[in-house]
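hey all, quick one before standup. I had two proteins in the batch that finished overnight and I want to keep them in one place so we stop losing track of which output belongs to which input. First protein below, input sequence then structure tokens straight from the run.
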Amino acid sequence: QEQLVESGGGSVQAGGSLRLSCAASRVIYSRSYCMGWFRQSPGKEREGVASIGSDGTTSYVDSVKGRFTISQDNAESTLYLQMDSLRPEDTAMYYCAAYHVAWWSRLCTLESSRYPYWGQGTQVTVSS
């Protein structure tokens, strides 16, 4: 049984938009958590894109600020990544991930090594 399942990837023209979804299990939401979106292209290192905490605090990598928005719907146990003004360099496999934190934790890292829970990924392709 999977803890995280991504969907919503696809192919779009540059300047277009996509919304990725990640369904999370009760294992994730049973404790305070951080959740994030990561991406990886062939031959390149995995890159942290955005993160969000149990309290809604968000972080973004500089290259997507103003274009991507991370959000969550706790009632539906779903994480989202709204991607606008997409560029060809955004092309990658996108993964959602999560880790548990102490209740007093305020910041969520974008370092992939911190995240033990991972989804299978969804492909995003942006053409010029």
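OK second protein, same deal, sequence then tokens:
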Amino acid sequence: QVQLVESGGGLVQPGGSLRLSCAASGFTFSNYFMSWYLQAPGKERELVASITGDGRSTNYAEFVKGRFTISRDNAKNTVSLQMNRLKPEDTAVYYCNARRQHGSLVEGFASWGQGTQVTVSS
């Protein structure tokens, strides 16, 4: 069974940094396209960043470009999100997402973690 467990969230002041981690198990991690999403209260879940199975290609939402970095360690079955220069608008629950990848194609079916809360406030 696919399992994703996020950690690393917490309370941080504006301008501060956090590093989120997602530990994966139950599947061949390198075959999966991994993403981080966020969901703020009263809003839909939206994509933050994604990374291909081999780690060679990444994509970022415009509102995090230059501040956040997604990475993965396929030997440890983990994907991370380094968040720098955090803003109050970044406050949300952050979720880890996994989708099976076949070459350039990514399946629509997704597995999700339970989420980790990030709060940016002074």
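Flagging for whoever picks this up: The radius of gyration is 14 Å. The chain has a mean pLDDT of 96.
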